Amino acid sequence: MAAAVKAVSSLVGQRQVVLAGVDYGPGCAALARAAFARAGRPLPAEARDAAALHALAQARGALLPTRTPSAGDLVFLADRPGGPPVHVGVVERAEADGTAVVLHRVARGVLPVRLNLAYPSRSDDPATGKHINDALRVGARAVPAGSLVVSVSDLLRRR
User: Fold this and answer.
1) Domain 2-157 falls in which CATH fold?
2) Less CB within 10 Å around the terminal CB: N or C of the chain?
3) Where on the tree of life does the source sit, at the highest rank (predicted)?
4) What pTM was computed for the model?
């Protein structure tokens, strides 16, 4: 799994998801497909978007009840708080305070997004002053990334 996370981490800033000469296609699910392929566990052909990956994780019992992400986990995001999963990212690392750095492919390329599910509606922790959630655009307004999380899955760690 570490090799999978390292491989997709190498794509930060890149517009295309291409590893070892394989183009995994457009969209945010391409990053998940690349991670699974690098882990030697290619995803089924029908897992082409976030909704299909979410359905696969649900069918395999791989949605986490704790919502505490670890490196290699998938994080499913909505377009609006409370919405269905339409985006997916791969957790690059989890910090001790519960903040996770999630790699997500957007139109500009692969970018890291910080989110903390313990404080989903806040961007900063007033007790420490630490930045815990990046802002993502929802329509014309910016919302904390943690408020858009639908679920977390350990599908990549499952056998």
Assistant:
1) endopeptidase fold (from Nostoc punctiforme) (3.90.1720)
2) C
3) Bacteria
4) 0.94
